[in-house]
Design brief:
Layout lengths: L1 H5 L5 E8 L3 E8 L3 E8 L5 E4 L10 E4 L3 E5 L5 H4 L5 H8 L9 E5 L2
Antiparallel strand pairs: 1-2, 2-3, 3-4, 5-6, 6-7
Organism: Bacteroides fragilis str. 2-F-2 #4
Protein name: Putative exported protein
């Protein structure tokens, strides 16, 4: 399978899928490391297909419920969280060391 992804015989694979009352969610992985997110809003049939959020945040959901999804915060994305976190919360993120336990963050659905 890995070789098929490397040479694009298989263009992508479905890595994760979740759903709640409002959304279907799928993570598609292209090649070996390039992933994109697909949300389908059940209410109106609108789809959202993206690699990163408008704040330039990459996420890979670990859990998904009715109100939010939970992801690990990647160190390289720390600066992008300044746009969405309160100053107090962002300071906690900045003070983390690379060898600390993973940091989880919740993304709430609108």
């Amino acid at each position: 399978m890995l070789q098929y992804l490397r040479d694009s015989t298989v263009p992508y694979f479905l890595c994760d899928q979740y759903q709640n009352d409002k959304f279907y969610y799928i993570m598609l992985v292209f090649g070996l490391k390039h992933s994109k997110n697909l949300f389908y809003r059940k209410e109106d049939g609108k789809s959202f297909f993206f690699e990163k959020t408008t704040e330039d945040i990459h996420f890979e959901p670990l859990a998904f419920n009715e109100d939010f999804l939970t992801c690990i915060v990647f160190n390289e994305d720390f600066p992008n969280y300044e746009k969405v976190l309160s100053p107090e919360e962002y300071k906690k993120l900045e003070e983390r060391l690379e060898d600390d336990n993973p940091c989880l963050i919740k993304f709430y659905f609108k």
